[in-house]
User: Which sequence fits this backbone?
């Protein structure tokens, strides 16, 4: 990646911010698309903010994306998205606009790139009769979020067929790690356990394929480096099923928490996906990728990070707390 000009849309998001830092460490010239040119709104990138070129734009606005041509990226990672599955049911229009129309806008804004990597989602699979899920399974998206993301895939596939565009489609499975929003299941459980709050959950029979974030970053970097990824759809997953009940019990154990586990207090979603597990054979064959950090070690790393995060926000003597007080003194 050294000396490559690389654009990451949605660069301050959870997974994108980890990718941006990796690319910078490898000597790439990185630009991000973000709505606000402010480190306060892009706190995940605070330590590399002065090393990143900022393109202030909204991917729903074609005019604002004309700025991409000035940067002339050789590689584009399209990661900007409306990314909350549950909330997409009450924000249908916004979800479609960002995930479907926004993807088309980014692809059409600039076409002189060496590689365009579209970050899709495992959610597009929806209900499947068997696991593990392979890339040739027929998608059956079950939320406005996943419908929009699948529409983005279809637009990419159209471009590949029409123009032989150098596009790869990556389907990451459930990511976790430092800097993830507490709206996601693992940070929510960790924070509640660290604070001693009750953990409300379903009975936790549903399974998910969890991936520590740096494993996914390894795969995304390889997708840009390998010619074998061009024109392909590739899963990035662990090929391991974790029941949500087991996830909760493991976090509770690793945090030595006294939180009360209220299993069964929440209803399952009407469109609940009961089993989720990736086939990662294609990623092994085309990218030479396998996860380096296993589930439990990833949880330990994540819990340690959230302990520091909690101390920063809960401790009256922390520098962040003092800074906030100073603003009103």
Assistant:
């Amino acid at each position: 990646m050294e000396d490559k000009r690389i654009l990451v849309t949605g660069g301050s998001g959870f997974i994108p911010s980890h990718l941006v830092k990796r690319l910078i460490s490898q000597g790439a010239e990185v630009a991000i698309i973000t709505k606000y040119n402010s480190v306060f709104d892009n706190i995940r990138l605070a330590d590399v903010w002065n090393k990143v070129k900022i393109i202030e734009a909204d991917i729903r606005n074609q005019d604002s994306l004309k700025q991409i041509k000035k940067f002339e990226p050789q590689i584009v990672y399209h990661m900007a998205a409306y990314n909350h599955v549950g909330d997409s049911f009450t924000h249908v229009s916004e979800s479609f606009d960002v995930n479907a129309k926004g993807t088309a806008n980014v692809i059409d804004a600039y076409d002189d790139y060496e590689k365009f990597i579209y970050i899709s989602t495992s959610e597009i699979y929806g209900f499947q009769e068997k696991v593990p899920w392979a890339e040739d399974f027929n998608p059956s998206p079950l939320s406005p979020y996943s419908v929009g993301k699948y529409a983005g895939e279809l637009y990419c596939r159209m471009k590949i067929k029409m123009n032989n565009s150098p596009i790869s489609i990556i389907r990451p499975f459930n990511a976790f790690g430092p800097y993830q929003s507490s709206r996601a299941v693992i940070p929510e459980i960790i924070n509640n356990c660290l604070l001693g709050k009750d953990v409300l959950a379903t009975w936790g029979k549903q399974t998910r394929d969890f991936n520590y974030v740096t494993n996914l970053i390894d795969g995304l970097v390889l997708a840009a480096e390998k010619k074998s990824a061009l024109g392909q759809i590739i899963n990035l997953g662990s090929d391991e099923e974790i029941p949500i009940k087991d996830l909760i019990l493991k976090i509770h154990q690793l945090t030595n928490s006294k939180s009360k586990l209220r299993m069964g207090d929440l209803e399952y979603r009407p469109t609940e996906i009961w089993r989720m597990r990736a086939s990662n054979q294609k990623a092994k064959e085309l990218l030479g990728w396998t996860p380096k950090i296993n589930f439990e070690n990833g949880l330990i790393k994540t819990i340690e990070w959230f302990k520091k995060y909690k101390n920063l926000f809960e401790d009256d003597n922390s520098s962040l707390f003092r800074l906030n007080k100073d603003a009103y003194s």
In short: The first strand starts at residue 5 and ends at 9. The chain has a mean pLDDT of 94.
